């Protein structure tokens, strides 16, 4: 082990190739920059997010077909507000400014931007006045999603209004002579009814992208990048058997074959039978080196008496790295550590260096990492969402049951065992959890419910069993419907199935006398309870 990387280092998504259609998103600190990128990728056009102040020289090297300027929390007229290289507006490629990005584009051509009379947040009816190419296929009236306080006050001599809302006369604009467009609303969020069409029109019709990009191409690029970066060194990959790390391992295997060693940490926080099933599944599908480290005692010792969720996560994040380091001592040239980190892990940890995002929870593999790792990090999925990773897994020929597994967080049962994490409490939770999954599977709901589990609450309640009083544990059942795990709805599990889950848990799991069902969505709740 000789790398001295820090938690901040990782592989950025996608190297661009000169012969390919690329759209760049200049990120001004938007909450939704990644959503812009994925909506563009949905149009089969490769899209890369870059710093807002990337120089024009560098942009020319990357040779994009168009630029999208994202939204952002600042005001364009504010001191120290993030600004692009002013020369981008002289590039001969189309530009689409979204919200803050539109305000920047208009201001660059002489328009005034200042606080509007009314701030606009959420659903708004948008009326198209002069659609043109950008609005092709978008009805005259539709719902768009707004989130702004500032407003472009005049169009100078350069712009025309394409669409309006009740409070915003310039909801969409186009430059008279140049391919510069602005949208005050957010086409990238699903609440904007025809946002996909708008972005599709921009990248395909206006920028002239052919829409030929496919996941297979992305995989090929990543494979080449990984080969170049790793050279003759070895990579150790934290393998949990979950979707993300399995896809990372498959990608690395494709790239560097036998230079890959995988490490499964059995931290005593896994579900029933999990370590064994990962080993079997792994051996069937990868022919590389797998180390299984039994570390239950270490994890439970360090977690003893800890009840604060963030502390649990930090302790677990650090222990994972300690275990990887120790195990790597027996693996020569283990310079890199690969993890299946996804974008939601990054944004919820408040760890996006270009973003203003708040810390929701320190995901063990991002916010929970110690500052000095001793490895260089490889995180090829860091900019992707779960459903994109699943598509990648299928493309890499991973078996369906692996690709469609419910996610299971690295901190595992520790963040579902509210209060103290003790061996006997984990055992109770494990038994209840297995029943939840078994009943959903029997009811044919496993795939449709994207994540389901049991939570052991830190309280007791009174019951009566066999005519005797009990004062026992409570299990909460959680099942959610979601695609990208950024937002989620509680799943409407049929009453009969809930009934069977409850009866089986109370009758079979010792020490539990009550089962409840969690009916909260994300936001305002999160999927996990801690
Ligand atoms: N028990 C474990 N042993 C080794 N590495 C792990 C373990 N648990 C998590 N990791 C590492 O942390 C990363 C993030 O965990 P996370 O749970 O988000 O992803 P995953 O387990 O690969 O997929 P899924 O989200 O489907 O559970 C994993 O990709 C893996 O690299
Ligand atoms: O590897 C992980 N390490 C973590 O620390 C972590 N926290 C949450 N999750 C998973 O992320 C998704 C979103 O979860 P939340 O709505 O609870 O934030 C859900 O799928 C969660 O299971 C984690 N995964
Ligand atoms: N969402 C945004 O980009 C907001 C831009 C700017 N901060 C405003 O309030 O108008
Ligand atoms: Mg997992």
UniProtKB/TrEMBL annotation:
CDD domains: GATase1_GMP_Synthase (cd01742), GMP_synthase_C (cd01997). InterPro entries: Class_I_gatase-like, GATASE, GMP_synth_C, GMP_synth_GATase, GMP_synthase, GMPS_ATP_PPase_dom, NAD/GMP_synthase, Rossmann-like_a/b/a_fold. It comes from Symmachiella macrocystis. It catalyses: XMP + L-glutamine + ATP + H2O = GMP + L-glutamate + AMP + diphosphate + 2 H(+). Catalyzes the synthesis of GMP from XMP. SUPFAM superfamilies: Adenine nucleotide alpha hydrolases-like (SSF52402), Class I glutamine amidotransferase-like (SSF52317), GMP synthetase C-terminal dimerisation domain (SSF54810). Its EC number is 6.3.5.2. It holds the Pfam family NAD_synthase. Pathway: Purine metabolism; GMP biosynthesis; GMP from XMP (L-Gln route): step 1/1. Keywords: ATP-binding, Glutamine amidotransferase, GMP biosynthesis, Ligase, Nucleotide-binding, Purine biosynthesis. Homodimer. This is GMP synthase [glutamine-hydrolyzing].
